[in-house]
Amino acid sequence: MGIIIRQSIKGTIVNYAGTLIGFVTTFFVLTRFLSTEEIGLVRVLIDASILFMSIAQLGTSSSIVRFYPYFKNKNDDNGFFFWTLIVPLVGFLFCASLFWIFRESIIGFFEEKSPLFVTYYHAVFPIAFFMLYQQIFEVNANVLMRIVVPRFVREVLVRIFTLVAYLLYAFDVFSLSALVWSLCIVYVLATLCNVYYLFSLKKISLKPNLQYLTKPLIKNYLFYTLFLIATALSSAITPSLNTFFISAKMGLQFTGIFTIAMYIAAMIEIPYRSLGAIVQPQLAQTIKDKNFIAADQLVKKVSLHQFLVGTFIFFAIWINIDLIFLLLPNGDQYVAGRWVVLLLSFAKLINSSFFITTVALNYSRYYVFSLLFTFLLTFVAILLNIWLIPYYGMNGAALASLGAYLVYYVVALSLILPKVKVNPFSLSQLKVMSVVIVLFLLDTCWKYFFESLFTQSIVLMLVESIVRLGFLLLLGTWVVYKWKISVELNNLINSFLNKK
């Protein structure tokens, strides 16, 4: 776990640096200078581009991780990188044709409630293209055990470029049309940065070695790719369902409010973006080698650490949720998303804690079942969105996400536990849960006795919140350390203390 811990820590630092920039952008620029409808427009464009990109890659991101071990040697990748460029290009051209053919149907879905999206629908194509290759280059770096620089590009540079675009719009340098097209330029620059870094590693080759393309490997790849295309079609739709349904049924202004709430909840899954990226290649290797004991240990550790960090982040968010909306520019418009934050936080915590099990399933010989589970997730999410949004609005969309993930993991884990022989559950997770419950009780007591003393001004409330949060998180960390819930965390703390 040495390189995994080092790379994931560096990656997490990068993620949170990007989160800080995103925090400033989202909560102090977007909410101040853009209307809820304009925020909703940007969100729908990005989600539509992600959906397009996810389908167009034809499963290449997962295929890179799964099949790279078959091509690599001490010198290079024997032209494996070449094939990772060609397959997504074919997928993009195919998907672009489909999106254009069904253009009228897509427009009709949004035309009544979100006409602004219809106006800028065509911007999805270039944004999706450069998103696609930015991700392909990043995954190629991941299998080389280099996640930090591509993660820096995605989490920091993209956010900086985007922030600049928003500020130019805020100060009337850009029109709304220029802002939309500047999003495309952002991903062009990010893609070029990843290209330069990947070639600087000097471990990839554009010259394919046809000797590695054996018939069994080609057959396995084609079957796996067809499976991944169907999976991507389903799994890419699910995260965007809330955005699309709210935009079509309620309007872009509600999408904007939902987007801000979603950004707050998304902080819970940030650690997994680094940990998952660096762990997946090793998990693929252990399963390929049929070392199921090592795979099970890896899954347990990832699930535990994501649950540990995720619950602490959720705790930090929820005990300060009212203050967050109070500090937010135009927060009175966005406070309607308060319960959306709670419901989506639970959904994010469940998904990020157990997602590693479905990754293990994808790399096992039972990977075809993940397609059925993904279809189930999408089907349940669609039904719940259709059923709950008319009754509960945005809260119904968030509840639909939570309900869909609960059903998905209950069904998926019923196969993964006995067949793949990896189990994400451990006694340590119950210990983490008990620690966080105690922290919530202590927070309630603190507020009961002291909150009235700090309500005279926002400054006093902010200072009190920082002190309270810092004390409770330090207390929680101390309990986790003394209880020896995580060997890796204890080693890191000991290493830090020894250096002191």
> What portion of residues is helical?
over 70%
User: Any idea what the shape is?
Assistant: globular
Structural class of the helix and strand makeup?
mainly alpha
The number of strands is 0
Low-confidence segments, given as residue ranges, are: none
Describe the structure.
The chain is mainly alpha-helical and 500 residues long. The chain folds into 2 domains: 2-425, no CATH class; 431-500, no CATH class. 83% of the residues lie in helices and 0% in strands. The chain contains 21 helices and no strands. It has helices spanning 2-33, 36-56, 60-71, 80-101, 103-110, 115-119, 124-143, 148-170, 176-200, 215-235, 237-249, 252-266, 270-288, 292-318, 321-327, 331-334, 338-362, 368-420, 427-450, 458-482, 487-499. α11 (237-249) runs antiparallel to α12 (252-266) and α13 (270-288) packs antiparallel against α14. The longest helix has 53 residues, at 368-420. It is globular and about 75 Å long. The two termini are 24 Å apart.
